[in-house]
Amino acid sequence: MFADGARCVAVVGAQWGDEGKGKLIDVLAEQATIVARYQGGANAGHTVRVGEAEFILHLIPSGALYPDVRCLLGNGVVVDPWTFLEERDELVGRGLDLDGRLGISGRAHLVMPYHKMLDAALETGRGGKAIGTTGRGIGPAYRDKAARTGLRVADLSDPERCARVVERCAEAANATLARQQVPERVDPEQVLAALGEIGEQILALRTDVGGEIRAALRGGGRVLLEGAQGALLDVDHGTYPYVTSSSTTAGGAATGAGIGPTAIDEVLGVVKAYTTRVGNGPLPTELEGREAERLRELGGEFGATTGRPRRPGWFDGPVVRYAAGVNGLTALAITKLDVLDSFETLKLATDYELDGRRLTGFPELASDLERVTPVYETLPGWGTSTAACRRLEDLPEAARRYLRRIEEVAATPIRYVSVGSARDQTIRVAAARA
Ligand code: GDP
Ligand code: IMO
Ligand code: MG
């Protein structure tokens, strides 16, 4: 399923996350040597369906379902070691053989229990301006990383350093908790004891992720760089401050995996055939009422990590066009086309207007994005199931027309179309169209 000649493919979300990256990566992983996560942490929820079995992966890369794929966490990931081990054990309990297949960069930062406490406390403190985080401690962990007060996987080999860092962080966290009037406190001894229990297990997985990727590529192997979240949640390019705290876009794939940008030869943007967002922040094409409920029910749009209902909307062209630019997308993978099967007509936003003027760029301010009016086109639906379609020619003409409009509006060719969550419900679009 790899595009011709591609060896190292970054697979990134091109909207607000939950585009179906897990499914796409699983499909592509059949031919991969390595699948590596490069950013984010257990805030991700990537669903992979194999037959009747469904797996929701939070930290372990979505290549895990193929027995020969090595699954790595790059330096850009923030690893909650307890969640990681729990997830590993659960997958092993479900019959996966992960022995010798997992590796974590020694440079990856650890998400500590106090990061999660701070995540919750800071959210409460934001009141009506809460981001709606997943509560996985992501923001506070990246804050420690940037402030140079974080703890990394490699530090687990130095108990004295761990003690110093944890004591300092606990003190700072307790001051914040007190300020936020949260009654709980961090007990550094307890944290260190818990860390002591799992340190060796994590250290046993320590590896040079960038080095492994480079060696695999030199040896003719194929590598997938698995993005989490999406472009509009990127800390630089997203709808700040309603974003996550990492670089979700393709540039982050190089930095976060420990390779150079020149090693990546394809950037595949995963795009839902409509739009969803979970958490707070602007969503210009958002639907309300019965239409929203219909799309949410048909698409099963409930968060894979938190179970929260996702906010659905029509396809947002300016978002995907912008995501194509900031990622340098070479192709699109359109997912969940089947969810639109029963709609009589579909709306697709091609542009935004703000204060009566057509915008040429994408607004920097969340407050401006809140105020834009999408310019919609209405396209006919196809009113028939696409779930059994396996080639582009099998799709109804109206569905192909809808896809063509997406390609035009996003100015990027479509390489895959997904018409269901199963592996075989994937259409590979001939490269000649690209
Ligand atoms: P990710 O975070 O980008 O990996 O996406 P999620 O796993 O959070 O959400 C995508 C959901 O859509 C999952 O439940 C998938 O099983 C499901 N899914 C993926 N592709 C398709 C598709 O083409 N059609 C349908 N109906 N469901 C899909
Ligand atoms: P996958 O990889 C959708 C959202 C949260 C919140 C914001 C910040 O499954 O696509 P955080 O916990 O990261 O500090 O929350 O980002 N968010 C996601 N939304 N899919 C995800 O991951 C997300 N991970 C975080 O809802 O709005
Ligand atoms: Mg998800």
Strand order of the largest sheet: 9-7-5-2-10-1-11-15-19-20
- Report the bound ligands by name, code or SMILES: guanosine-5'-diphosphate, 6-O-phosphoryl inosine monophosphate, magnesium ion
The fourth-level CATH homologous superfamily of the largest domain is: Adenylosuccinate Synthetase, subunit A, domain 3
Mean pLDDT: 97
Q: Helical segment tally?
A: 12
- The total tally of domains equals 2
Q: In terms of structural class, how would the helical and strand content be classed?
A: alpha/beta
Radius of gyration over C-alpha positions, nearest whole angstrom: 21 Å
The CATH class of the largest domain, by name, is Alpha Beta
**Major sheet: size, sense and barrel closure?**
10 strands, mixed
The unreliable regions are none
- The CATH level-2 architecture of the largest domain is identified as Alpha-Beta Complex
Number of strands: 20
Fraction of helical residues: 25-40%
Give the overall form: globular
Termini gap: 15 Å
Strand content: 15-25%
